């Protein structure tokens, strides 16, 4: 009886050697993990990738490969790239909103300083530099993926 | 959509695989011969037969986007073999959270100024509305209220953290590389 094979070797129907490169990362009780990775990347590609990196990094590499494989299975067209573009979009929107609110604050500061001047006309002329706070820059257009219009 | 329309010009995939590029080659429309690196990257990470299977799973009009997203992922994985795209996602998430916190703090400051203005300037609302119209925001005095509206749109699946050395692409420059 062949027992103790990792999920990779079980899937490939082969013996699982003691130094199997897959066995630490694809336990037999989680066949889905290897199935996802195998479906997207292929067994030999994963093996090559693991061989080319230090042993201590392989667990994390397999985790991220598994995540990306799952995303790709859920969304065969965009995979995880859709999430990246959404995050870029969020960043751009938040930056724009931040710039607007900062401009409004500058406007209110100016209002307050103008009111103060009315009551105390001999205020220091450096109050006028608040007007310069109107010179806000909207963030430059981010470089979104091709499919974001 | 690029295509290997010339009779004697195999696509990048067939050139790489050293085979004849047939008229119905599934790779030809998406891997033009002048972009050999694109297919080389995709082949290294996914393999030609997996790419072919993936392309057959999607509708023809979606294949270009599918190939481009695969090329992007492949390039990310080659740049960062351990974290790939997950590294970029982690960095971006942290940026979004940081920026959202800054926006929340700025909104709170805005509310303080709004209240101050209301106290000292009886006609404040008119000025505030004028300011918001000037900035192209038609939401009026409620601009400071919905600070979490953007994050509410964030993908709910993005609830993890991965430390990543992939800190050089904060501006998303890698997107240009695939286009």
From TrEMBL, chain A:
<dbReference type="InterPro" id="IPR004883">
    <property type="entry name" value="LOB"/>
</dbReference>
<protein>
    <recommendedName>
        <fullName>LOB domain-containing protein</fullName>
    </recommendedName>
</protein>
<dbReference type="Pfam" id="PF03195">
    <property type="entry name" value="LOB"/>
</dbReference>
<feature type="domain" description="LOB">
    <location>
        <begin position="4"/>
        <end position="105"/>
    </location>
</feature>
<comment type="similarity">
    <text>Belongs to the LOB domain-containing protein family.</text>
</comment>
From TrEMBL, chain B:
<keyword id="KW-0175">Coiled coil</keyword>
<dbReference type="Pfam" id="PF03195">
    <property type="entry name" value="LOB"/>
</dbReference>
<feature type="coiled-coil region">
    <location>
        <begin position="89"/>
        <end position="116"/>
    </location>
</feature>
<protein>
    <recommendedName>
        <fullName>LOB domain-containing protein</fullName>
    </recommendedName>
</protein>
<dbReference type="InterPro" id="IPR004883">
    <property type="entry name" value="LOB"/>
</dbReference>
<feature type="region of interest" description="Disordered">
    <location>
        <begin position="128"/>
        <end position="150"/>
    </location>
</feature>
<comment type="similarity">
    <text>Belongs to the LOB domain-containing protein family.</text>
</comment>
<feature type="domain" description="LOB">
    <location>
        <begin position="9"/>
        <end position="110"/>
    </location>
</feature>
């Amino acid at each position: 009886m062949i027992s103790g094979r990792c999920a990779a070797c079980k899937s490939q129907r082969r013996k699982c050697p003691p130094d199997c490169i897959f066995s630490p990362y694809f336990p037999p009780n989680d066949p889905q993990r290897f199935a996802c990775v195998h479906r997207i990347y292929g067994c030999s590609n994963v093996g090559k990738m693991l061989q080319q990196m230090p042993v201590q990094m392989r667990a994390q590499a397999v985790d991220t490969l598994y995540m990306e494989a799952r995303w790709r299975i859920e969304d065969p067209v965009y995979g995880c790239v859709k999430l990246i573009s959404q995050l870029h979009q969020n960043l751009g929107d938040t930056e724009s909103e931040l710039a607007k609110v900062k401009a409004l604050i500058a406007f209110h500061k100016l209002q307050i300083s103008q009111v103060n001047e009315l009551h105390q006309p001999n205020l220091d002329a450096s109050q006028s530099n608040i007007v310069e706070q109107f010179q806000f820059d909207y963030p430059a257009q981010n470089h979104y993926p091709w499919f974001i219009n | 959509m690029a295509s290997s329309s010339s009779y004697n010009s195999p696509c990048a995939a067939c050139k790489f695989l050293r085979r004849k590029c047939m008229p119905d080659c599934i790779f030809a429309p998406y891997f033009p011969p002048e972009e050999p690196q694109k297919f080389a990257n995709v082949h290294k990470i996914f393999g030609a037969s997996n790419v072919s299977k993936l392309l057959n799973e999607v509708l023809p009009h979606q294949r270009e986007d599918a190939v481009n997203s695969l090329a992007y992922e492949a390039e990310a994985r080659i740049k960062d073999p351990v974290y790939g795209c997950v590294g970029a996602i982690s960095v971006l998430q942290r940026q979004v959270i940081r920026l959202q916190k800054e926006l929340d703090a700025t909104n709170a400051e805005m509310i303080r100024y709004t209240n101050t203005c209301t106290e000292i300037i009886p006609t404040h609302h008119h000025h505030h509305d004028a300011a918001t119209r000037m900035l192209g925001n038609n939401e009026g005095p409620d601009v400071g209220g919905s600070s979490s509206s953007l994050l509410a749109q964030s993908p709910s699946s993005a609830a993890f953290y991965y430390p990543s050395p992939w800190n050089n692409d904060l501006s998303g420059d890698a997107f240009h590389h695939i286009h």
